Amino acid sequence: MKILMMNAGHIGPDYYRVTEPARAVREADLGVEITITRGLTTTMHNRPGGGDPVVTDVDPRGADVVVLQLPKTVEMLQCIRVLQAKGVAVVVEMDDLLSAVPFGNAAYNSIIRKGMARLALQCAREADLVTTTTPALVEEYAPRGGGVVVPNAIPRRIAELPPAYERAPDVVTVGWSGTVAGHPYDLQEMGSGLQQALDNTRGRSRFLILGQKWDARERLRLTEEPTELRWIPDVDRYTAAVGEVFDIGVAPLRIDRFNTCKSWLKNLEYAARGVYCVRSPSAEYERLGLGRRAKAPKDWAKALTTAILDPDLRREQAARDRTVVLDRHLTEHTAPHWVAAWQQAVDNRARSRRKGA
């Protein structure tokens, strides 16, 4: 089977949903040939009487399956139809519920107001198969059995790096990875809990953001400005840094429609790097079952204070969570699921052609 995977140009999703799955499938020697491309080679013609050009041909490069990551334009929808007319199966890969991007998110204007979310849904509904990171996304994009979940996973080379719990720091670093512009309501889920924990352990703890802190101090009403380590665009170096600078990771999420569909990835990254995690009770974090749950500010304060003051507890829980990742959540574990999904897309396309004959 030959697969052509088109990535969307977003660093994290490209890594976890295209590049690393492709690497894992190749290394597993599952009889699949994979080519990754940034875009598709297309032919476009002007409509009679004017208007925007339309896609009239797409080169699948000999692939049996073309995987489109986050397609959300009219041209991508046209590509799907052209490829299917050629007998090529099309898989749409979705890792976010675009229609629920919250107001205040940096991408809200382009995704919601400019109609990209609506086009993404149409692309998913016309694909031969949709792959997603969560069951909730399958329900949104492929509610009639046209989708499968292939969960996010971690490369073994990352999970086997020296874990954070091997350190014995005098000052414990509580960390959050992300950009406030992309998570405008999430940090606030901790309420005063983070500051209470920092007050309870003054001199023994600090708060650090790996990414872009923007106005995090005001959102969290912190008495001191958090330390910022600027975002690292290389995912291998970023995940390595998580285990090098965090002792405790926080994963707060506002429980809304967008976040209910989100993957367990942040919690998984913390666990893989041996970082003790305190996290919100989101559906996917609960399904993963790693880290310590916190909901109200008092829960965050108690969980963080305990973890800062009790290194043995922190070490035991983090080591246990990392073992779960090594046993169940590596890219080598999900490689067969990707191949099965692509084969299902081929079968679906063949059935569609027979029905149309």
Q: What percent of residues adopt helix (DSSP H or I)?
A: 40-55%
What letter string, H or E per element, gives the SSE order?
EHEEEEHEHHEHEHEHEHEHEHHEHEHHH
- Distance, first to last CA: 24 Å
Percentage of residues in strands:
15-25%
Number of discrete helical segments: 15
Number of strands: 14
What structural class do the secondary elements suggest?
alpha/beta
Could you say how many structural domains there are in total? 2
Radius of gyration, CA atoms, in whole angstroms: 22 Å
- Proper CATH architecture of the largest domain: 3-Layer(aba) Sandwich
CATH superfamily of the largest domain: Glycogen Phosphorylase B
Q: Are there runs of 5+ residues with pLDDT below 50, and where?
A: none
Average pLDDT over all residues: 96
- Strand line-up in the sheet with most strands: 2-1-5-6-7-8
CATH topology of the largest domain: Rossmann fold
CATH class label of the largest domain:
Alpha Beta
Largest sheet geometry: 6 strands, parallel
Shape: elongated
What does this protein look like?
- With 357 residues, the chain is of the alpha/beta class.
- It has two domains: 2-153 and 331-356, Rossmann fold, CATH 3.40.50.2000; 156-328, 3-Layer(aba) Sandwich (Rossmann fold), CATH 3.40.50.2000.
- It has helices spanning 11-28, 74-85, 108-113, 116-126, 135-141, 156-159, 193-200, 216-220, 235-245, 257-260, 265-272, 283-288, 297-309, 311-328, 331-356; strands spanning 2-6, 33-37, 41-45, 54-59, 65-69, 89-94, 129-132, 147-149, 172-179, 205-212, 227-230, 248-251, 276-279, 292-293.
- It has a six-stranded parallel beta sheet with strand order 2-1-5-6-7-8, sandwiched between helices. A six-stranded parallel beta sheet has the order 11-10-9-12-13-14, with helices on both faces.
- Strand 9 (172-179), helix 7 (193-200) and strand 10 form a beta-alpha-beta unit.
- The longest helix is centred in the C-terminal third of the chain and has 26 residues, at 331-356.
- The model has no long low-confidence stretch (mean pLDDT 96).
